[in-house]
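Encode chain A's predicted structure.
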Amino acid sequence: MFSTIALTLFLQSQPQWLEIGYSQDRCVIEGCIAQVSATKPPLQYIEKTTKEQTSVFYEEDKFYLHYDLRKRIRYFLDEHPTQTKFVVIGWTDGCGDHSYNKELSRKRANEVARYVMSLRKGALVQLEWRGEATGKHTIRARRVDVAVFKKGKQPNTPPKIIYDFYLIDASGSMDGGKFDKWIYAIRYWKPSHAKVYVASTDYIPKWIEIQKVNPSGGTEIWFAYWSILDKMKAGQKLIIISDFDSTIPISTREKQMITNKVRAKGIKVIVIRP
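Encoded structure for chain A:
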């Protein structure tokens, strides 16, 4: 009789996945988590387009490209010797009639475009004239912008968030066909004192380098979340990196039980979705 009552009380205090025993049954490793070694991952690069621009400024009601303005444009082209595509945009200030200013901005842009094409043979110029840049009377608005757009690779450095525990989803859905989500997840900077765990239904050797883990199996991130909370002390901080692409939904009651456990231990949790 006592054992039956004790078992009932135990089950009432556990999430549904423990009550029915499904989550652990689906996992090869205990708690669906394995502690891993998190060495610094290789630097990843992303394609990024950057804009560089110069501007030439005009006296009131003028569009002629005098020597100083030409010099500024020549200098800009010399800074971009291989560039063949340019964007030229003409502007005016707010002084005068709107239609007149629109035409004036066109004349300014045309003058600059012609000069750019004379300096850079075969150049392609996207020409725009937008009229008034402001309603005010200011030289900063009486201008033509010359811009180039460059595509290149830049380091994709993840933010440094210093926490005590990291729980990273290593399920098959984090693969994305090209390990895109997984690579994003494991690149998060981790301090040397942090403990790093991966959540998986498959076998993962303890202390394996995280770069050697291949995401596979089902998503048991909620049970892994529950399990890792038992390893944490009051006041510690946890980061969870997961797409939460679980085929088994979590109930409102289960969510509340996790929330209560987090609050009871005073743990701060951040969730990051790749």
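The first helix runs from residue 2 to 12.
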